[in-house]
Automatic annotation (TrEMBL):
Record localization: Membrane
Annotated source species: Esox lucius (Northern pike)
UniProt entry tagged with the keyword Transmembrane helix: yes
UniProt protein name: Sugar phosphate transporter domain-containing protein
One Pfam family recorded for the sequence: TPT
Domain Sugar phosphate transporter stretches: 19-303
Length: 350
């Protein structure tokens, strides 16, 4: 009966896939706007402290939910560290580099350079998960990268430090998405365990790093802590940090790491064009504008190919049928073996 383990996992409904993807897109869009307001408009000096606030909020919310038995995940022991590694490292890297890159980079350029996450996710899925992709999908990704390079080449607001941070953020985001998909199936963790222990394991080291670098002192000494508007934005960012991480895990649960990345690309289309009219930090140039449009067009084509190919195809149906046939054959062989063992006299003599 071991052949039963080969039965394909049941597919989630299209509605759940779409709703989880839309939830992630909305959360990601909103937190970018809030974080940029805090770090740019209010000139908050510590993106690391903001990340700590988001991690602490995640811990508090999930711990309270676990105590109320609203959610369930494994209690902490040594096995948790083995099960969840290397997600905490990728989590803190994603948080810190993402917040750092938002500080001095315009919204359109931020979203353009984030397109490299798609290429990196494809590479990591091919390497780590052994997936392969059709040529037309690869070409669309190259078009996205080409458009991003064209747009970035004439960025009049060029900031080498921000560019470095956002490229590192792309790497961490891609790796986090791929490994999150792998860890979702680990017994005892699940969606909530991944979120809780990611934040729980790395919040203290991050806090210590903030203390030793003087980052915490700058955050505490910030002049607008008694400003109601700033405090409201800060609290919203902390809550949205939890919501965003939950939406990413939820989208990865119902979809794939690559689909989650594609959803981010679709969301970035809206962010980039809104950023041209809102925020006042986009410096127009025709080369930059052309690159943006190439990049966004490639993203839309890429998204279409991904979602179109995700529909049940004849190839997929044939694969499922073959798996079912294999299962039937395996079960038949097991039944035949059992019959021969019980009734050996029924074997005809030659």
């Amino acid at each position: 009966m071991s052949a039963l383990a080969k039965v394909p996992e049941p597919q989630h409904t299209g509605l759940l896939k779409f709703l989880s993807a839309a939830f992630y897109a909305a959360s990601s869009f909103f937190i970018i706007v809030v974080n940029k307001t805090i770090l740019t408009n209010y000139r908050f000096p510590s993106y690391m402290f903001l990340g700590i606030g988001q991690m602490a909020t995640t811990i508090i919310i999930l711990f309270a939910a676990k105590m109320n038995k609203t959610v369930h995940f494994q209690d902490f022991d040594r096995s948790v560290l083995v099960k969840i590694f290397p997600l905490p490292l990728l989590y803190v890297g994603n948080h810190i580099t993402g917040l750092a890159s938002t500080k001095n980079l315009s919204l359109p350029m931020f979203t353009v350079l984030r397109k490299f996450t798609i290429l990196m996710t494809m590479i990591m899925e091919a390497r780590i998960l052994g997936k392969s992709f059709p040529n037309r999908l690869i070409y669309s990704v190259l078009a996205i990268v080409f458009g991003a390079l064209v747009a970035a080449s004439s960025d009049l607001a060029f900031d080498a430090e921000s560019y470095l941070f956002i490229l590192l953020n792309d790497v961490f985001t891609a790796a986090s998405g791929v490994f999150t998909k792998k860890k979702l199936g680990v017994e005892g963790l699940g969606k909530y365990g991944i979120l809780f222990y990611n934040a729980f394991i790395i919040v203290i080291p991050t806090l210590l790093a903030s203390v030793f670098t003087g980052d915490l002192h700058k955050a505490i000494s910030y002049e607008y802590w008694f400003n109601a508007a700033f405090v409201s934005c800060f609290l919203i960012s902390c809550i949205m940090g939890f919501v965003l991480m939950y939406s990413i895990v939820l989208c990865s649960h119902y979809n794939s790491a690559l689909t989650t990345t594609v959803v981010g690309a679709i969301k970035n289309v809206a962010v980039a064009y809104v950023g041209m009219f809102v925020g006042g930090d986009y410096l127009f140039s025709w080369t930059n504008f052309l690159g943006l449009n190439i990049c966004m067009s490639g993203g839309l084509v890429y998204s279409y190919l991904i979602f179109h190919s995700s529909k049940p195809s004849q190839c997929n149906e044939r694969g499922i049928k073959e798996n079912q046939d294999e299962l039937k054959i395996s079960l038949l062989e097991d039944s035949t073996e059992e019959f021969l063992v019980k009734f050996p006299s029924n074997i005809p003599d030659e």
